[in-house]
Amino acid sequence: MAVSERSAGSGAKNAKDARNALGADLGLSGDDLLEMYRLVALARAVDERMWILNRAGRIPFVISGQGHEGAQVGVTWALEKGKDWIAPFYRSIATCLTFGMSPRDIMTAQYATASDPSSGGRQMPGHYGSHEHNLVSVSSPVATQLLHAVGLALAARIRKTGQVALTIMGEGSSNQGDVHEGLNFAAIHKLPFIFIVENNGYAISVPLARQVAGSSVAQRAAGYGIPGVTVDGSDVLACYAAARDAVARARAGDGPTLIEAKVTRLTGHSSDDQQTKYRSEEELAADKSLDPVPKFREQLVAAGILTPEAEEKINAAIAADVHDATEYAEAQPDPHPSTAMRWVYAEDWPSESPPPWGMGEETASGSDSAPDSDAAADDAAADDAAADEAAAPIDESAR
Ligand SMILES: Cc1ncc(C[n+]2csc(CCOP(=O)(O)OP(=O)(O)O)c2C)c(N)n1
Ligand SMILES: [Mg+2]
C-alpha cells in the first residue's frame, strides 16, 4: 500500500480496504474465499489419495480432476445448493464436493461399496451422482449429460421454480451431436441453462487442434445466438464471476450461456493412461504453472486472507477428512449379489404381466434369455432379503 494511503484517516482507510479487498467486487467475503480455498485443496487431496489407493491395489480405476479444481469450485459457487441442478462429468470431484457431496461419498464410489450414494456400487468409478444434492449421475457416453441438463432446465421453466441447470464436459466431448441438439433447443426456448466446457487441451491423447475446428468452443455460442465466454480456468474468481453472470441471465429468463474454462490436465487421462507417451516434458512442466491450487493459495496469502493459522487449520481438517473417508470406505461392505438388479429394473412390475426382460415364470424354468443373477431374484429368500434392503437400501452391514 502506498505511504499516502497509509497516512490517510482510519475511516477513509477502512473504506478503501473494503473496496480493494479480494473478492469484494464480486460480493465474496473473506470467509467465502477461505471456504472456496478449502474446497479446492480438499478436492486435490481426495484426488491424490485416490491415486495412492489405486497404485496400492485398493481401488481399480482413477479418473482425476487435478488441474480442474479451480474452475469447478468457482463455477459451482455461483449456483444455489439444494435448489439448482448440475449434470457433472467424470472429473467433477470438486464440483460434487462444492455442491454438497462429502469425501466419504466420493471415496465409497471409488470402492464401489453398497453404501456409495452415487450408485450403491453399480456405476463405473468416477461416475458420481447424488439425488440428495441435485447432482445427476454421470453418464458413460460423453455429452449425453447436456441433454439431461437441458431437460431439467425445461422442467424448471414449465414449473416456474426459478432453478438453473448446469452441465459440464470436456472440449472433446463438446463435439458430440447431442451438444448441438441440446444447445439449439435451449437457446431457442431461452432455458435457464449453463454449459461449462472444461478445456484441458486433450481428449485422452488427442490434442485440441485435432478435436476442435477453429480451436475455440466458446465461439460456437454465436451460432446459437447466446453468449460464449472464455475464462482462465486456473483463476477461481474469474470462473466464479463468469458463472455468476450466467446464473443471473438464466434466472432473468435471458437464456443459456456457454463458458469455456481453459484448464490443465495435470495427470494422465486416467490411471490406465501414460501421458508421457504423447506429451513432452516441456509441455508438462509448463502446464504446472496453470495449477489452480498454488495459484489460489498465493492470491489469498497475498491478500492477507489465508493467514498461517487459517492454513494450518484448513490443512489439518482436510487431512482428517481424507483419512476418515479412506478408513470409512475401506470398512464398507460390497453390495450383496442378490441386489444386482436393484435400480436397473422396476421392482413393482405387476405380477399379471411378466416384465419383458424375463424375471417372471420363464426365468424360474431356466430360460436362456434371463440374466444369470435372475436365479437369485427368483429365490424366495433372496426376495425377502431384497425387500428388507429396500427399506434401508444403503446399509448392508448386517449381512
Ligand atoms: C460417446 C463416447 N465416445 C467416446 C468415449 C470414450 N471417451 C471417454 S473420455 C473421452 C475423452 C473426452 O475428452 P474431453 O471431452 O476433452 O474430456 P477430458 O477427459 O479431457 O476431461 C473419450 C473419447 C465415451 N465415453 N463416450
Ligand atoms: Mg479434454
How are the secondary structure elements laid out?
Elements (H helix, E strand, L loop, with lengths): L2 H4 L3 H11 L9 H26 L13 H9 L7 E3 L5 H6 L4 H9 L32 H16 L5 E6 L6 H12 L4 E7 L2 E2 L2 E2 L20 E5 L3 H16 L5 E6 L18 H7 L4 H11 L5 H24 L29 H4 L9 H5 L1 H12 L8
Parallel strand pairs: 1-2, 2-3, 3-7, 6-7
Antiparallel strand pairs: 4-5
Helix pairs in contact: 3-4, 3-6, 3-11, 3-12, 4-9, 6-12, 7-8
Walkthrough of the structure:
The protein is of the alpha/beta class and 399 residues long. The chain folds into two domains: 19-331, Rossmann fold, CATH 3.40.50.970; 337-391, no CATH class. It is 43% helix and 8% strand. The protein has 15 helices and seven strands. It has helices at 3-6, 10-20, 30-55, 69-77, 93-98, 103-111, 144-159, 177-188, 236-251, 281-287, 292-302, 308-331, 361-364, 374-378, 380-391, and strands spanning 85-87, 165-170, 193-199, 202-203, 206-207, 228-232, 257-262. The strands form two sheets. It has a five-stranded parallel beta sheet, with helices on both faces. It has a two-stranded antiparallel ribbon with strand order 4-5. Helix 9 links the parallel strand 6 (228-232) and strand 7. Helix 3 crosses helix 4, helix 3 (30-55) runs antiparallel to helix 11 and helix 7 runs parallel beside helix 8. The longest helix is centred in the N-terminal third of the chain and has 26 residues, at 30-55. The protein starts with a helix and ends in an 8-residue tail after the last helix. Bound molecules: thiamine diphosphate and magnesium ion. Thiamine diphosphate binds at residues 91, 140-142, 169-173, 200, 202-204, 265, 269.
